[in-house]
Amino acid sequence: xxRISVRTWGASSQQDRFxxxxxxxxxxDTYTVMIDGGGxxxxxxxxxxxxxxxxxxxxxxxxxxxxxxxxxGFIPSTGMVFRCVSCLDGAA
Length: 92
Fold this sequence. Notes:
By secondary structure, this protein is of the alpha+beta class. It contains three helices and four strands; from the N terminus they run H-E-E-H-E-E-H. Strands 2-1-3-4 form a four-stranded antiparallel β-sheet.
């Protein structure tokens, strides 16, 4: 008897996207950030933080209420960086 392998289309690409997302959340690099107010600082950030998907302080994803984001700086050639409202208010 022969075994027939059935492959679900999209499963591999979905796994690849998930793996890439996890890698972005974990990969840390040093970025020069222009903080609002004009000062330049070097920060070790995950790629997700540098791309504006996570809070610079607590790494929370943007949401509503206290997890809503406010821009706090800019990374040249990458974009805006953010902190969540609760971190800005000192609640986190």
